[in-house]
Amino acid sequence: MSHRHLSQENLHPVIANASHPGPNRTRRTALSNALIGLCSGLIIGLLVGSSGGGADASQPDPKQTIVVSQKDIKWTAWSGLPEHSGEMATLYGDLNKPGPYLVLMKWYPGYFSAPHTYATDRVCVVVSGTWWINSGKDFDPDQCVLVPAGGFVQRVARTPHYDGVKNDAKEPAVIAIFGEGPVDLKLVDPDKPSWRTVAATGTAKPVLGPVDTYFITQTALGNPFQVDSGRLAQKQGGTPAIRSYGELMVSSHIAVNDALEAILKKKAQVPPPTLLKAAYASMISTLEEETGKRFDTDYVRGQVNYQKANAALYQYEIDNGTDPDLKAFAQRTLPKIQDHLERALKLEKELQLP
């Protein structure tokens, strides 16, 4: 049962997509390909079992093609779980023996697995319902990602995760899970039960509006960029003023990021940031290769442009955002950004940049 903690940059994130050393890295392509074949057979079997059409002229040879109809799938309660919480049906192989396996896991509304790990990778497809998943050692179902029917999830070996279905869901979630045994399940906290009860999503954190979401995604990229580029300026800046400015960027943006993270813990998850991600990475890569006057010119010129755009971003959140916590955060932070812009413009003047 692929159940416990799962992952926002964040997943973040989350749907498990981490690299892992050892034999599992070389197995992932084979696992994914095998899943396609096995799940295709599963889906065909379900369709055959639920259809009422006439027989073909020649029926499948049971020695060559094995079909299990939906009504014939044998569900059993997962060991240690309460009745009607989590059930499993083994379709191929054995979880606890060497070799590939394919199982169906069914989570009923209101139940989750506790944080746990497996010895090998698992690849999963949601067959029906909606599956709530997350990664990490700390159980926090409100931070889960929702994966509807047809969605794919990969669990990386020995990374803690958890999953299940919240209490107000209309139906259980059924997940097809493929991997290589033995799975060697290990609970993060073996002194606690292997399952959790979870309340309805009605108690979930407030969802952010489009302006607030845009503000968060851009700030989530900008803060790390400023910290990384500031550290480069501390080491490679050609003047004391540039090195001092870089130090200020590091300390200031770490503090800003911490304040923002405290607010976001009270909000629903937002999509992982993508816009400008490649541009920021390219700028950092360029600065890493530069020294002297060239570094100073590119860094300072980039800071002037960044601070202007950042001030506009914060002002837009103040004017158009709908979340009161984020608007207040933007109002508190904007004066610092304006101060950073003045400092960057002063550096630009001292360098006599055109």
Gist?
With 354 residues, this protein is an alpha+beta fold.
Can you offer a commentary on this structure?
It is a single chain. With 354 residues, this protein is α+β, with helices and mostly antiparallel strands. The protein has helices spanning 23-50, 210-236, 240-264, 277-288, 292-320, 324-351, and strands at residues 76-77, 86-92, 99-107, 111-113, 116-117, 122-128, 130-135, 145-148, 152-155, 161-165, 173-181, 186-187, 195-197. Helix 2 runs parallel beside helix 4 (277-288), helix 2 packs antiparallel against helix 5 and helix 5 runs antiparallel to helix 6 (324-351). The model is unreliable at 1-32 and 34-55 (pLDDT under 50). The radius of gyration is 26 Å and the shape is elongated. The protein has six helices and 13 strands. The protein has two domains: 23-203, Jelly Rolls; 210-351, Ferritin.
What is the strand content?
15-25%
Give the proportion of residues in helices: 40-55%
User: What is the CATH class name of the largest domain?
Assistant: Mainly Beta
CATH homologous superfamily grouping of the largest domain: Jelly Rolls
Give the C-alpha Rg: 26 Å
Number of strands: 13
What is the spatial order of strands in the main beta sheet? 1-2-3-11-6-9
Distance between the termini: 62 Å
Number of structurally distinct domains: 2
Q: Classify the secondary structure makeup into a structural class.
A: alpha+beta
**Shape call:** elongated
Mean pLDDT: 83
- Looking at CATH, which topology of the largest domain would you report? Jelly Rolls
Main sheet specs: 6 strands, antiparallel
Low-pLDDT runs of 5+ residues are 1-32, 34-55
Order of helices and strands: HEEEEEEEEEEEEEHHHHH
Helix tally equals: 6
Architecture of the largest domain in CATH? Answer: Sandwich
